[in-house]
Amino acid sequence: MKIAIGSDHAGFQYKEQIKDFLKQLGHEVRDFGTNSDASVDYPLFIRPTALAVADGECERGIVLGGSGNGEAIVANRVKGVRCALCWNVESARLGRQHNNANMISIGQRMMTIETAFQIVQTWLDTPFEGGRHQRRIEEIDQATPEGCARS
Ligand SMILES: O=C[C@H](O)[C@H](O)[C@H](O)COP(=O)(O)O
Fold it and tell me: Yes or no: is domain 2-140 CATH 1.10.287.3510?
């Protein structure tokens, strides 16, 4: 697969290691930065990563930061992206089975690199279940481009 990857400074070290891990598995990686530990603003790197998944340049995407929270928030504002914030193998497995997550967000300050590798591997290997979960995904996509509001 062609996989987009992006991080801020707080996710940079794991981004580099996950990039190597993906290449060893035979995947093509498109790196949207950042390229050092120097402090940056995560939306500037995460949004282009998510847009590459949304427009089909990449099949999947991985974003990283300190917690992964802000990165997931940014990615999920891009139409067509379903980014699961993953903190263990089970959350990654369910992100695929139930949510058909085409992106994951990982918090470098939240876990060991071994757990991060296991999350990535699980997310790559687990198929979407479909069925009732497909209906729910379609309900997510019923939101207007402006978002939802009570009328
Ligand atoms: O949700 C955002 C991410 O966790 C960021 O990586 C984090 O906020 C960066 O924090 P700092 O600027 O204190 O390194």
Answer: no
SS3 110: coil
User: Which parts of 3-149 fold into alpha helices (H)?
Assistant: 12-24, 43-54, 69-76, 89-97, 113-125, 132-140
Q: Side chain identity at 46, as an amino acid letter? A: I
27 in a labelled binding site: no
Q: What is the pLDDT of residues 48-79, one digit of tens each?
A: 999 999 999 999 999 999 999 999 999 999 99
Amino acid, res. 43: P
Task: Calculate ∠ Cα 73-58-102, nearest 5°.
Answer: 45
Query: Does 144 have pLDDT greater than 80?
Result: no
Where are the domains positioned within the chain? 2-140
Q: What residue ranges line ligand 1, CB within 6 angstroms?
A: 8, 10, 39, 42, 65-67, 69-70
